[in-house]
Amino acid sequence: MNIDLTPIFQAIIALLAALVTYKLVPWIKARTTESQQALLSATIRTLVYAAEQLYGAGKGAEKLDYVVGELEKRGFTADRAEIEAAVAEQLNFVGGLTDEIIIENADGAKE
Questions:
Q1: What are the distances in angstroms from CA 82 to CA 12, 35, 77, 111?
Q2: Cα torsion at 72, 78, 81, 87 (round to 10°)?
C-alpha cells in the first residue's frame, strides 16, 4: 500500500510561500528607501517589456523565468506580485493605446 503525500507537500509549500510573501514583502519595503523602490519598479517594468519583445505572446513561464533571472543578475529580488503588477500595467498601457487610435480614410475623414 502506497500513500501519495505529494498533494500534502504541495499544500505546505504553497502555504509557506504565501507566508513568506505576506511577511517578507513588507519587511523589505520597510528597509529600502523610496529611490531604491523606484529603481526596482523601473527595472521590473523594463524587464517585463523586454521579455514580451523577446518571447512574444503565450510564453508566460519563459518570460517570468527571464525576468526573475535578469533581476537576480542585477542583484534584485522581487516577488511574483510585483512582476504581475508590471505585466498588468503593460497590458493596460497597450490596451489604452489601441483605444486611442483614430483611423482616417482616403477623404481625410476620421472613423
A1: 23, 16, 10, 38
A2: -50
- The C-alpha cell of 6 is what? 505529494
Q: Read off the C-alpha cell for 21.
A: 510573501
CA geometry: angle 27, 33, 38, nearest 5 deg: 105
What is the model's pLDDT at position 101? 46
Dump the DSSP string for 39-85. HHHHHHHHHHHHHHHHH-TT-HHHHHHHHHHHHHHTT----HHHHHH
Cell, residue 25: 514583502
Q: Tens of pLDDT along 58-84?
A: 787 888 888 888 888 988 887 777 888
Rounded distance between C-alpha atoms, residue 102 and residue 105, angstroms? 10
Predicted local distance difference test score (pLDDT) of residue 88 = 81
